[in-house]
Design brief:
Layout lengths: L1 H18 L8 H6 L4 H36 L11 H15 L5 H24 L8 H23 L3 H5 L17 H13 L1 H7 L3 H6 L4 H23 L5 H13 L3 H25 L8 H24 L1
Helix pairs in contact: 1-13, 3-8, 3-11, 3-12, 3-13, 4-5, 4-6, 4-11, 5-6, 5-11, 8-11, 8-13, 12-13
Length: about 325
Amino acid sequence: MKSLILALLLIFLMAAVSLFVGVSAVSPWSILDGTADQRQVMILLASRVPRTAALVLAGSGMAIAGTILQMLARNRFVEPSTTGTVESAGLGMLVVLLFAPEMPVMAKMLVAAVFALAGTGLFLAVLRAIPLRSVLMVPLIGIMLGGMISAVTTFFAYRFDLLQSMGAWANGDFSAVLRGRYETLWVAFGLTIAAYVVADRFTVAGMGEEFSTNLGLNYRRVMAIGLFIVSTVTASVVVTAGVVPFLGLIVPNIVSMAMGDNLRKSLPWIGLCGAGLILACDIVGRTINAPFEIPVGTVLGVIGSLFFLYLLLKRQSRVA
């Protein structure tokens, strides 16, 4: 408990740093002593606070969604960006732009969630149709499925001259997050709390359908709950900031190496580490090439691809 409190304090410190990093100068001292001008206060309240809150909510939500998906697929190499989930959510956003562009943000998120749920369900159905699958084949199937969905999305976006609009969701970028444009992420926060409540069921479900059923667990119901949480969290993040890759791969694997697979014990750590990682990537992206900004999705893509390669090589060395 003491180490968890220290980790929470570290996240608060990183969030405080995030509030005062950026092109527009906002001094923490002037804010604290009340001498800040109206422009600084407006930037802090309308841009910096919503952005930091969105980073924390998106980071914790995607990390926990990746953990649940790994339990359901029984594979450590999967997460929403390697199973076609985020690509399906993007296809849902294209459908909204084509048929109902004036739809409210919450309704857009629900449509994207339905498409993400369908894409994830299709991925799991394909896995069930392959009786003898290797551990490394599972993410490959997900990446191929995501590529097919992304190709369909790109084709129709090109035909209807919406490529530029779809580009806004192609990479995780929190620079445009303002007050009134991130509130859907509170849905993701509520679902992460729900995931903690049913964490024990996800742990048992991760041992397989036959084992779970023998213990009296309604395996199909747990799968449905897990898919709903994963798809809705992914959709809320995609609608708000775009694709945040590999976060659900990096954090669960690191926490699992240290704490094992008991979700009741590890989920708080997964949420905190997810928030901390995305905050760190955002701070790096805003400072490494200031005053220009590198999107969070780009920084995470570099880190995540290297970590994915590390996991592959580590497994190959064990096999050898």
